[in-house]
Amino acid sequence: PGRSALAATCAGCVRGRTPVTFAAFARLAGDGLRVVAAPGAEVLPGPAGAESAPAAGGPGSQAVPGMPELVAEAALLQARLDWFQTRLALLGERGPGGAGQG
Fold it and tell me: Ramachandran region of residue 7, left (φ > 0), alpha (ψ -120 to 50) or beta?
C-alpha cells in the first residue's frame, strides 16, 4: 500500500461534511491506528457578529486539525483504497469458474 498526502482545505470547501472526533476517527479506522491532535489547535473564525463555526474536532468543537492529522487521515484513506483495489483485483482474477476476467 502507498502513502499519499492531501492539502488542507478551508471550512467553506468542506461543505457540510459531518465532523468526527479524533477518537471516533481512530475507532472507525480500525485496530493499530493512533490519532493524536497536535497541541495549540487553531480556532475557526466565524462571520462578523456570529459565533465561531464548529470545526473538524467534533460536534461543537472549535479545534482545527493540524497538518499531521490531515496527513495521517490521507495516508489511512490511501491505505483503505489500496486494500479495496487489491480485493477487487482478486475478485476479477477468480471470476466464474476460476478464470480471470479483465
Answer: beta
DSSP 2-38: ---------HHHHTTPPP--HHHHHHHH-TT----PP
Q: Which three cell numbers stand for residue 98?
A: 476460476
Question: For the packed helices 67-94 and 22-29, what is the interaxial angle rounded to 10 degrees?
Answer: 20
Q: What are phi and psi of 46, to 5 degrees?
A: -95, 175
The pTM (predicted TM-score) of the whole model is 0.34
Cell of 74: 490521507
pLDDT per residue over 70-102, tens digit each?
888 888 899 999 999 999 998 888 766 655 555
CA angle 79, 12, 4 (to 5 degrees): 20
State the DSSP H helix or E strand holding residue 42, giving kind and residue range, or none if neither.
strand 42-43
75 CB-near residues (< 8 Å, 6+ apart): 3, 4, 5
